[in-house]
Amino acid sequence: LWLLVVSGAGGSGEVPPVPRAVPEPRAVPELPRAVPGSPRAVSDAELQELSEQLLAADSNRAAPGQLELNLKSSGSDTAASRLFSYVSPDLLARPTFSRLLALLDNYEPLTGRDETETVEEQREQKEFLDAVLDTPVLQLLERFVLSKGLYSSAKAFRADLHSMWFGLYSRSSGKALDSSGFEHVFHGEVKKGKVSGCHNWVQLQALERAERLEYLGYTWDGPWTGFPDVLSLQFRWDGYSKPQGSLLVGSSPEFDLALFTLCFLARPDRQCHISLGGEATTIQTYSWEKQRLVASAYPLTP
After folding, report:
1. Is RNA-binding set as a keyword in this record (predicted)?
2. What pTM was computed for the model?
3. How far apart are CA 287 and CA 44, in angstroms?
4. Domain residue spans in the chain?
5. Catalytic residue among 148, 184, 187, 191
6. Which of 148, 187, 191, 242 is flagged as catalytic?
7. Which of 88, 144, 253, 261 could form a Cys-Cys staple with 96, CB 3.0–4.6 A?
8. How confident is the model at residue 289 (pLDDT cuts 50, 70, 90)?
9. Is 162 a catalytic residue?
10. Which residue in the list 148, 187, 191, 199 is annotated as catalytic?
């Protein structure tokens, strides 16, 4: 099992969590590694090729007219405005989106408070993973990791996918099992009075719809004219600030999960250089100590 945690460089403003003293259940290969199973390296060329293939397979991403953003420069004015001018209800009703949204009310944002998983919440985790694994995007990733010998079977990959994203760990000096990779990246947390993580646009639009998000402007917008785009922005969530956060916008939940998982497996705790629509970009991931749990994952921006 891995234990999760950190957001790091690239202007994210996040600080690695304090390790919890828990005995390791098994030996872990020394870095660098490709991941479990046979450590067959994944080249930069393979990362770039596969990321483009994942993008081409992402038929659930926002199409023209399904998502409209209201971009304004950070500090350009003091008037409140919304980030999302329009989000198609049909887009949010698709299986992977609706199952992601069902998970987003399961978490306690404040660190230091134990996360409890009810039977219903565990069922929602399974339904979300079943839905994304049923898409061409995750099927493509699954075939790739099996072809590289990273896992012995599809069953082993799927079990580790659940573990690396939903395995609980502590961001509060071991005081509580208060975090997971999924919570940090897709939902977001509040640590020491500031927002930590929260690298998913579906969560941001849900918070804005609930009048809990105050959009303060963007600091960088990528070169993409369609979706997904990469955006760096500032916001407040329930009054807690995120001075700079980056995320993919307009992508499907399965695309974010597949891309972040690929980089977490192939370039853990390092920069992962990929290609989207012919444009180079970089994903940064972090892992929890020597355990194979996601700590953070997000696109780097200037």
Report:
1. yes
2. 0.86
3. 20
4. 44-300
5. 184
6. 242
7. 253
8. confident
9. no
10. 199
